[in-house]
Amino acid sequence: MATMLEVSGLYHRYGGGDGAHLAVNDLTFTVETGELACIVGPSGCGKSTMLRCISGLIKPSGGEVSLHGDRVDGVPEDLAVVFQDYSRSLFPWLTVRQNVEFPLRWSNIGKAERRSRAEEALEWVNLPGVGNKYPWQLSGGMQQRVSIARALARRPALLLMDEPFASVDAQTRFELEDLLRKVQSANGSTVLLVTHDIDESVYLGDRVLVLSKSPATVVADLTVDLPAERDQIKTRESAEFVSMRAEVARLLNGGVKETADAVKD
Ligand code: ADP
Questions:
Q1: Strands (DSSP E) along the chain, which ranges?
Q2: CA of 49 to the centre of ligand 1 (A)
């Protein structure tokens, strides 16, 4: 497998002088092409900061990020991000189809191709036939599916997901988790998903990277030894799942790294 994302010695410090705050400390990991990797870490440990550095939205204080071998220096064109808050990421004055097509306007894809890609992506997320509706006419779960379709329509080399299912109810969350695994495996997409939910990281991931408390550093990189086909009831009841979530919980509790720069929240 070729490496899609390489994060090497990444650190980021907000501010300077006495007010400096080290948010991310010496993160090193890779994500292979076609993999669904989950990063789990406690709230405030630096997950969003890490994602901002990976997506080129902020320049890290140190270290390097490379996407398919190219150093990230600014927002890469072939990267898409799905955020937690779908209500603020979709444009309410555009229809669902126009929302999904929106980022394609900046590529050199013709109008007919944009439309067919949008329809195709809406089918991938089980939303055929809603293209003419407005986002606010859909449930929260459906709106988040539109956000996922919008990201996939660009056929990104890497899909970053920042707590994408944290704002929906438990049943919808299960449905979206299963949908993501299905779409990811059907398209061979490379996904890096950040969550603070231990169960979600194990259920979804081919791999789970466990982060320490602030400042974030990788304390473990675990391969998820569960069958590719997962089931919300059977998988979560299985001995492998139960033992892995216990291991991740143990690592999260014991994975505190004290450094001279750490600022206690
Ligand atoms: P997470 O996503 O894991 O909750 P964040 O990356 O949002 O963590 O934040 C990590 C730490 O960096 C927190 O202590 C937060 O208060 C701090 N932080 C985040 N953004 C900024 C900023 N723009 N300026 C200063 N400190 C920040």
A1: 3-14, 21-32, 36-40, 62-67, 70-71, 79-82, 158-162, 191-195, 207-211, 218-223
A2: 6
